[in-house]
Each structure stands twice: as structure tokens, then as C-alpha cells.
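Hi support team,

I've been running sequence recovery on a batch of backbones for a student project. Most finish fine, but this one hangs at about 90% for roughly twenty minutes before it completes. I'm not sure whether the input is malformed or the queue is just slow. I've pasted the C-alpha cells below so you can try to reproduce it. Let me know if you need the job ID as well.

Thanks,
M.K.
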């Protein structure tokens, strides 16, 4: 992930939203550093992480923002959403309430962000299959109705994390290029 002396063609701001403890910080750690922090307190206070990658021969810097514990309803400020061109709306597949709150997060996101923002609904912790509380069909249906991308991920096992972020980044690139 070295980024010395690189000409950056695009910087895309992506925001992570969703209830507390769904795995937003771990998804970010996995995508930006390929890490899963067992002591996740370590990521508190970090505003954003970046990762530079190549899409269609262009250098794209993804600047991914983490809520750093402001998940209480309406506590995320408009500065957080400002300039965002992508969003990962995360719930925990083992926690039904975290999925029930997705509509509220979406409403807040749509109220603050650009109308062309690319949104991925992310069902995280797919490794915890035996504890599943949200059927994949429910999420798929919601995503389809709201025109969102949808994917289940595991930050722990590194399943679909890369694909989820790349799907969003590639779609943003398609829009702006
Ligand atoms: P945040 O509050 O949304 O940022 O959630 P964190 O990233 O801090 O994760 C909350 C808890 O869920 C931590 O104990 C993580 O270790 C755990 N966690 C995060 N992602 C996964 C995952 O994909 N699978 C499992 N089994 N646990 C996860
Ligand atoms: Mg966090």
C-alpha cells in the first residue's frame, strides 16, 4: 500500500455508518491495513484511514471515515457526511435491531449527503452463521427497494471486505469519470 511520489487522480471520501459494535472500525482496519484488531479500542479517535489503489489505470485515493463512537441517533454531524461520495451502511447479521435501524441511518444519510452518493448495505459478521438473526433475503429486498448495493462480509475472516469497498469505489469512479 505504499504511496510515495504517486500522482493521485481522484480522492473519494467514503463514510462508515451504522449502529455501534456492528464492526465498522474492523471493516476499515481490514480494508486499509489488512488487519483485525483484537483490541478494537485502539481505533477510537481515528477520523479516517486512506488506501490508494488503481482503477482503470487511474490512481484513486479512498479516504474512509469512521464515526469513532458517535453512533447515537443524530450525533453524527453534518461535517462527517460533507463531501462523501460513498457510504457503507453496516449492520450485524447477528443483531436484528442493528438491521431495523438501517432505514433510519439511510434517511439521515440521504438528508445530509449528495444525492448521487453510492451506498452499500453491509451485513457484517458473516462468520457467525449459527447466530444469524437477519435473513439474507430481508436485506436483499431492502437494498433492492432502496437501490443500494448489498453484500455480507466478515472483517474477521476477510470475506468480501475488499469486494464491498471496491464495488463502491468502482461505481463512484464510473460516475465521476
Ligand atoms: P463499531 O463500533 O461498529 O466500530 O464495531 P467494531 O469494529 O469496534 O467491532 C465491534 C465488535 O465486533 C468487536 O468486538 C469486534 O472484534 C467484533 N467484530 C467486528 N467485525 C467482526 C466480524 O466480522 N466477525 C466477528 N465475529 N466479530 C467482529
Ligand atoms: Mg468503531
Amino acid at each position: 500500500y505504499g504511496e510515495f511520489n504517486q500522482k493521485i487522480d481522484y480522492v473519494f471520501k467514503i463514510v462508515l455508518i451504522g449502529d455501534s459494535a456492528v464492526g465498522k472500525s474492523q471493516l476499515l482496519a481490514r480494508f486499509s491495513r489488512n488487519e483485525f484488531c483484537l483490541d478494537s479500542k485502539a481505533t477510537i479517535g481515528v477520523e479516517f484511514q486512506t488506501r490508494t489503489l488503481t482503477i482503470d489505470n487511474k490512481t484513486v485515493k479512498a479516504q474512509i471515515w469512521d464515526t469513532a463512537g458517535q453512533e447515537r441517533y443524530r450525533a453524527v454531524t453534518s461535517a462527517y457526511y460533507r463531501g462523501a461520495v460513498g457510504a457503507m451502511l453496516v449492520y450485524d447479521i447477528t443483531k436484528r435491531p442493528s438491521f431495523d435501524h438501517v432505514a433510519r441511518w439511510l434517511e439521515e444519510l440521504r438528508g445530509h449527503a449528495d444525492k448521487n452518493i453510492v451506498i452499500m448495505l453491509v451485513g457484517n459478521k458473516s462468520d457467525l452463521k449459527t447466530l444469524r438473526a437477519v435473513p439474507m433475503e430481508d436485506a436483499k429486498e431492502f437494498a433492492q427497494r432502496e437501490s443500494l448495493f448489498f453484500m455480507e462480509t466478515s472483517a474477521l475472516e476477510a470475506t468480501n471486505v475488499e469486494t464491498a469497498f471496491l464495488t463502491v469505489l468502482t461505481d463512484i469512479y464510473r460516475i465521476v469519470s
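--
Follow-up from support: It reproduced on our side and the slowdown came from queue contention, not your input. Residues 20-26, 40, 124-125, 127-128, 154-156 surround guanosine-5'-diphosphate (ligand 1) (CB under 6 Å). No action needed from you.
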